[in-house]
Amino acid sequence: MALSRLLVLSSSLAGLLAVTPVSGAGSTRLLTLAGLAVTHLLTALSALLLVASVVMMVVMVVLLAGLSAHLLAAVFLYVVFTHLVPTGLVLAGLVLTALLLAGSMLAGLMLAGHVLLAGLSVTGLTSPVAAARGLSTARGVSAASGVAFALFASLLTV
Questions:
Q1: Read out DSSP for 16-57?
Q2: Tens digits of per-residue pLDDT, 6-37?
Q3: What are the Cα distances from residue 143, in Å, to 119, 148, 157?
Q4: Average pLDDT for residues 142-153, to the nearest whole number?
Q5: In angstroms, how far is CA 70 from the centroid of its own chain?
Q6: Per-residue b/e over 40-53, b at no fewer than 16 CB within 10 Å?
Q7: How many of the other CB atoms lie within 10 Å of CB of 10?
Q8: d(Cα 151, Cα 135) in Å, to the nearest integer?
Q9: CB under 8 Å to 73, separation ≥6 — which residues?
Q10: Mean pLDDT throughout 100-113?
């Protein structure tokens, strides 16, 4: 199931990357989707890692049952499969979880940037220079409230 989800995700990401964005908001949306794709990829890898640890434990039980006559080999395999391999899998899972969290935070920041750019384009302030000019000149309260709303919405998404 994780592999089929990964194939669908990679094909949809390839279709998205084939389209060249024409605006700042479009490129921000593309980066947001790329961050979400990385997050889904890391989730699929974490699920595969969990399956690998369960398979290792089953293999350990089968090998220990088959090698009961060879006590030394059984003890060696027991130590390897119960201490070294699960420790490595847990460490790899922790690294993937950290990468998953970083990808989620990156996607949230990209979404916040998209919301901010959308709020600025709604108020007519499309660049920081235009924002500074618009807030310091006759636009006054309506532009400031639009920018404040966009900033508030971006904070909520993070």
A1: HHHSPP-SHHHHHHHHHHHHHHHHHHHHHHHHHHHHHHHHHH
A2: 555 555 555 555 544 445 555 566 667 777 77
A3: 10, 9, 21
A4: 55
A5: 46
A6: bbbbbbbbebeeee
A7: 13
A8: 14
A9: 67
A10: 75
